[in-house]
């Protein structure tokens, strides 16, 4: 994997854990940071070297000197309704402490594009986020791309997979979704395909590259949940008008689906993954249903 022998995952959460499993299977040394002692024990049980740290700057100098690759999946810091990309505070100093780094990947969001009125959005589309989440994620992207580290940015669509999906909520009944006028498109990506893309990028790095990670089927959220509920034989969702949605749903949920864009994955296919394991949610539904049933 391009001479990469060790990977540091900053903020090892849902995607990071699955990436770690893939890297460990390939013989890499994988280190991961977390703020939770309990979480650290769970990561160690997977075969990782877990470090409890409030900030990447708390990591030992020797550990950072030995790292070949870094994936940053640290979430935004939240204080009430405010969000902050902590990378702007620590990244410059961290980069100076990693003299042997060969590759870095920052896990961002397609929310940095903002609203595109339903247009197809590729990596050349101007970023104009209006949400605090999108604005701060863009700051973190810029911090990595300007850090002097050979970094790439991965703009993730809505992530789903085992233990992170809406199947149980649909099965419980009463799920609510807004039917926007005109329709508001959103894109998704299965966690397995995120991991495959990251592994491919580590093998075929291109510093400064920005890649959308999204599947082949953008859909309005209401159409998505209706189709998924039908496939898994769950109760039909309650479809709200925009006015009903404003009255009944949280502002966070409304903000998440207010932007309207179809995310292009042409570069993902051209440079990293010719074919996705799950090109759309239809191909993933059976596996997710089995996993959800097993968990229950």
Commentary on this structure:
The protein is α/β, with parallel strands linked by helices. The protein has a domain at 6-164 and 189-215 and 264-278: NAD(P)-binding Rossmann-like Domain (Rossmann fold, 3-Layer(aba) Sandwich). It is 40% helix and 21% strand. The strands form six sheets. A seven-stranded parallel sheet has the order 3-2-1-4-7-9-14, with helices on both faces. The chain has a two-stranded antiparallel ribbon with strand order 5-6. A two-stranded parallel sheet has the order 8-17. Helix 1 (14-25) links the parallel strand 1 (6-10) and strand 2. Helix 4 (87-96) packs parallel to helix 5 (132-145). It is globular.
Structure at a glance:
With 296 residues, the protein is of the alpha/beta class. Helix content is 40%, strand content 21%.
Please describe the structure with a list of short key phrases separated by commas or semicolons.
two-stranded antiparallel ribbon, globular, 21% strand, alpha/beta, 40% helix
CATH architecture of the domain at 6-164 and 189-215 and 264-278: 3-Layer(aba) Sandwich
What is the CATH level 1 assignment of the domain at 6-164 and 189-215 and 264-278?
Answer: Alpha Beta
Helical/strand content category: alpha/beta
Tertiary shape: globular
Kindly report the spatial arrangement of strands forming the biggest sheet.
3-2-1-4-7-9-14
Q: Could you name the CATH homologous superfamily of the domain at 6-164 and 189-215 and 264-278?
A: NAD(P)-binding Rossmann-like Domain
Total E-strand runs: 17
Estimated radius of gyration: 19 Å
């Amino acid at each position: 994997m391009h001479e990469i022998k060790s990977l540091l995952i900053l903020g090892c959460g849902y995607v990071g854990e699955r990436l770690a499993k893939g890297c460990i299977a390939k013989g890499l040394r994988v280190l991961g940071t977390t703020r939770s002692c309990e979480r650290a024990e769970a990561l160690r049980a997977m075969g990782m070297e877990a470090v409890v740290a409030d900030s990447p700057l708390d990591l030992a100098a020797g550990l950072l000197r030995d790292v070949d690759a870094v994936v940053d999946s640290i979430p935004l810091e939240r204080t009430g309704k405010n969000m902050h990309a902590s990378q702007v505070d620590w990244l410059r100093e961290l980069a100076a402490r990693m003299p042997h780094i060969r590759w870095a990947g920052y896990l961002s969001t397609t929310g940095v594009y903002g609203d595109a009125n339903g247009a197809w959005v590729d990596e050349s589309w101007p970023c104009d986020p209006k949400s605090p989440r999108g604005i701060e994620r863009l700051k973190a992207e810029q911090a990595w791309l300007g850090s002097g580290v050979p970094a790439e940015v991965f703009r993730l669509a809505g992530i789903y997979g085992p233990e992170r999906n809406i199947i149980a909520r649909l099965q419980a009944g009463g799920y609510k979704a807004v039917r926007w006028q005109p329709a508001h498109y959103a894109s998704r990506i299965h966690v397995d395909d995120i991991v495959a893309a990251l592994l491919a990028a580590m093998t075929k790095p291109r510093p400064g590259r920005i890649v959308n990670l999204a599947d082949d089927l953008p859909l309005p959220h209401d159409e998505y949940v209706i189709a998924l509920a039908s496939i898994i034989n769950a109760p039909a969702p309650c479809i709200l008008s925009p006015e009903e949605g404003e009255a009944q749903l949280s502002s966070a949920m409304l903000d998440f689906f207010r932007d309207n864009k179809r995310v292009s994955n042409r570069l993902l296919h051209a440079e990293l993954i010719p074919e996705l394991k799950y090109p759309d949610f239809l191909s993933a539904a059976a596996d997710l249903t089995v996993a959800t049933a097993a968990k229950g």
